[in-house]
Amino acid sequence: MLLFMLKRLGQTLLTLLVLTFIIFTLARMTGDPTPLVMPSEATDEDRQFFREQYGLDRNLAAQYVIFLNNAAHGDFGVSFRFRTPAFDIVREAVGPTLSLAGSAMLLAILIGVPLGCAAAVRRGGRLDQFTSLFASLGQATPTFWVGLMLIVLLAIDFPIFPSSGYGTLAHYALPTLTLGFYASSSIARLTRANMVETLKSDFVYMERVLGLSGWSIVLKHALRNASLPIVTYLGLQFGLLLGGAVVTERVFAWPGIGQTIVDAILYRDYPVAQAAILTTAILFLTVNLAVDLIVMALDPRMRDA
Amino acid sequence: MNPIVEVPIVEVQDFGVAFGLKDRPLHAVRGVNLTVRPGEIIGIAGESGSGKSTLCTGLIRALAPTARVSGRVCFDGRSLYDLPMREVAAMHGRDIAMVLQNPMTSLDPLFTIGNQVREVLKRRGVPGAQVREQAIAALKRVHITAPEMRVGQFPHQLSGGMRQRVLIAMATSASPRLLVADEPTSALDATIQDEILLLFRELRDRTNAAVLIVTHELEVIRRVCDRVLVMYAGRIVEQGPVSTVFAAPQHPYTRALLASTPRIEGTEVVLTPIPGQVPDLRTLGPGCAFADRCPHVVDPCRQFKPEFRDLGPDHRILCRLEGGVQ
């Protein structure tokens, strides 16, 4: 158990190291930030001064070592664009992203898991057909379109919720619905598939002929067994919501990390891009570590392996 | 024990089970008439696909919902397929118990043995304060060593034989009146098999329950059963007391089946396989299903339905050959 944790931690650190290299290289492949940062009337000397000031004149290997060393001390440099520490900009964006991803996940689980269970128990019934439709729609509809339609319906035609921005609880409604709809459809489909399989297993049949109650069989035994792959998938889904909610953040002007990354790349703001991507990665890896721990808590076979 | 005065626990009349489409049904079991008395251990033998498992699960109304059942099954005087499912479910585990073939997959892998045994006991109405104690007692009854430690273990930490014992403990916790065991020893080592079979005898001796054991191993039947049913292509082709049938099998299929089990003659192991293969249940003709493989086949066998003939007390065969095989 302890050995597993140590091994897992080592893997995580190694992943992070590889990731820093990729981020660093990719950021520099976007081009020279100087023309974007300096005003057009700046002289060549001014531009050279900027490059020297930020160490951009050194060779890439040296830059990478400096970046790594500073990052290890929590220093991601200063934003080219805002002239403030890059990490402060990222830190401000992490809160909104985490809370939106969290609320969307929660909504998705609350809708997807019961729907998938009910569909699996009454296979071929009305609710099962509805679930299939719901899952297909949720996965096939682009999130930006869902977001825009929700704005038209619930912010303009019936002005119940604010259309965009961040601040109050009401601001969460539309982006949470948008992301939650998308995430719940795949969770419902996965839950259904896993429950159908589990309900066919020998131990469920055995429990039925032992006369256990249907509720206990479905909710205690079958759902817990079916939940193992679902929990793993939830971790991945959460990671996707962390980094991949850019479109939704755009639509709702949500000051999250996705927007921060896109802007930083557009402005070739290397320090912010690097800090933001690395932060997202650390969050993602942490979630996955948590998922592994949850699966181990649920499955005794994993603890002995 | 005198079986004649006892009221049967199960009575089956013209029982059949079909699967598949209505216009192209597959009759897995048909025309079964059977009486099971309390305290009897009955063995059901046959090749794979002979319908022995389907018959057993059908008898206790535990078939897949797609199965279509005909005929009548009475358990303790009540027609099982005329009762609401809710009442049948209440009988499952309490009056009717079942043990499955594969002990490796028949326990929930995520809960401890104790947790699962206790859940069954609670369902039987054992008061909360006694559940713990009774769970350990139930495990002791099936000769599990160190039950106090086992209750804290998970299924994957137990051997196959141990798991089958746990399942038997759970199935028999309420002293059922009928226990159906579907290939209970097929997945186990030969040395464990005897011990598990012994448990069924102990259960019978303790509670006078009727036990049905489905198996393709005739040795199992010879050792523990009182009566044997031989099934072929969904029908019972011979039934009778084990001593009679094993000493002088009358149906050609029973003979062939007994001859096909390896036995030692002198210094050699002899085995006579049955020629041909199990017929396709969809393309059965009007005659005897065994006709194509039968060494004694005569023309009428293929044209006319075989009839049951009584050969002695409790002994009957489904064959038209006069007096069975000579």
Structural features, described:
The complex is a heterodimer of chains A (305) and B (326). Helices cover 78% and strands 0% of the residues of chain A. Chain A has 305 residues and is mostly helical. The longest helix of chain A is centred in the middle third of the chain and has 36 residues, at 86-121. Chain B is of the alpha/beta class and 326 residues long. In chain B, strand 13 (308-312) and strand 14 (315-318) form a beta hairpin. The radius of gyration of chain B is 21 Å and the shape is globular. The mean pLDDT of chain B is 88. The A-B interface holds A 201-203, 205-213, 216, 221, 224-225, 298-301, 304 and B 60, 62, 89-94, 96-98, 100, 102, 105-111, 119-120, 123, 154, 156-157, 167, 170-171. Chain A: This is ABC transporter permease. Chain A: It comes from Azospirillum doebereinerae. Chain A: The chain crosses the membrane at residues 100-121, 133-156, 168-190, 230-252, 272-298. Chain A: One of its GO terms (biological process) is transmembrane transport.
**CATH homologous superfamily designation of chain B:** P-loop containing nucleotide triphosphate hydrolases
Structural class of chain A: mainly alpha
Rounded to the nearest angstrom, the radius of gyration of chain B is: 21 Å
Shape of chain B: globular
What is the CATH architecture annotation of chain B? 3-Layer(aba) Sandwich
How many domains of chain B, as an integer? 1
Helical content class of chain A: over 70%
CATH class of chain A: Mainly Alpha
Taken as a percent bin, the fraction of beta residues of chain A is under 5%
User: Secondary-structure element sequence of chain A?
Assistant: HHHHHHHHHHHHHH
**CATH topology group of chain B:** Rossmann fold
N-to-C span of chain B: 34 Å
Q: Average pLDDT of chain B, to the nearest integer?
A: 88
Strand order of the largest sheet of chain B: 6-7-8-3-9-10-14-13
What structural class is derived from the secondary structure elements of chain B? alpha/beta
